[in-house]
Amino acid sequence: MTGHIVAIDQGTTSTRAIVFDPGGRIVAAGQKEHRQIFPRAGWVEHDPVEIWDNTREVVGIALGRADITRHNVAAVGVTNQRETTVVWDRATGQPIANAIVWQDTRTQPIVEELARDGGLDRVRATTGLPLNPYFSGTKLVWLLRHVPGAQERAEAGELLFGTIDSWLVWNLTGGPAGGVHITDVTNAARTMFMDLRTLRWDQAILDAFGVPQAMLPEIKSSSEVYGVAEDESLLRETPIAGILGDQQAAAFGQAAFGPGEAKNTYGTGCFLLFNTGADAVWSRSGLLTTVAYQLGAQAPVYALEGSVAVAGSLVQWLRDSLGLIGSAPEIENLAATVTDNGGAYIVPAFSGLFAPYWRTDARGVIAGLTRYVNKGHLARAALEATAYQTRDVLDAVNADSGVPLAELKADGGMVANDLLMQFQADILGVPVVRPVVAETTALGAAYAAGLAVGVWSDLDQLRSNWVEDRRWTPAMPASQCQSLYTDWRKAVTKSFGWSDGPEGTGS
Q1: Which one of 216, 281, 348, 362 is least enclosed by Cβ atoms within 10 Å?
Q2: How many of the other CB atoms lie within 10 Å of CB of 206?
């Protein structure tokens, strides 16, 4: 089959639709930001209706700019911010509350409650995940407990739960008028409810969380035809044929299909995925065991993941909250006004630390300040924080896999920052490589959909599409790198133990 693929990339700060041609090249795109809602310290919400409205709008923009209609589109792929949780009315399609975003930490008391029986690793042997507010499970429990009547309505079959992929696909395929309620294995793997071995919801865990299975979506593979777009859509009758969580989609778009291949995405957060093949490797070093992808009826492919909560959002904080820069790209020029960090380190534990520390009590610190430090040093320290956090994760990957990474494929908005990419190569001691098509998250969703409908025949064809754009090789002396990294680890310890309040406020 020939034809274009439309990828819907629903991210933490914006929604994009990108039209790809059969060569995997970008034809056109549309993008629109949505509101970030912060009701209290540690709480982060999105409006699901706003996201759905924006999705329809950006699809129209992308199709218009590409000068094509639905008749030129072979399939639609969806990729999404993963753990963000939506609960909505099955009959009306209206959410019962705002979506609780993956960064949100309000559910720490629920985590502590569940951990009283079996500790934080209570579900890890089944799901690959520790108990943590990051994942969807406790967010759903919070909504069921705090929205009046939600638990009773869920048990009566009136409410549906999903991550953003489920919300979008349900609406795309008809919503209350017969919408398909599904998710794929990569998103299901982030709920704390799915058994990694069987790829099915685990009833014992659902019972422990108090979640009715009837409200959960059906788990599907990452690449198959789930349904078609409904009559009023600009994509009417077009197959919806691919779903991948955003980090798995980026790895798929980077053609990291085989064991030992890895990518790191530098976006709002920073996420390293290391393909472990047919074997689910159970981490001993603070990483997550997850599903990389599953193609139709084939066996799943697994991965180790290191999740960093704050990367690009630290740059946004310098811009929006401190006014240190006027736009995100300005940080590179500001950082380039100095030759080093001046001894300053920023640990951006705004909502705790994810991998490999998993410290919900951590909060952000700036360490090593002297009168010598200026705004250029702080800009450099902010960029370096992302590179250091990636080093933390990669050291854990190397320990768990036993196979040191030879090079790191990089994608996401921050890969345009040459200073960061060079420092990343230095602090890792391995080359960092950027592909020609940097929009690898959307590309991965497009690939999954295109495979399902025959636009592409196999993974080898997709691998041949990958082309290197630029490579950064280590240039800093190893002794200097180790000294800098030692001080970073010292700074990280200063962030521990700051918060002990129920809502992440430290009180």
Answers
A1: 281
A2: 18
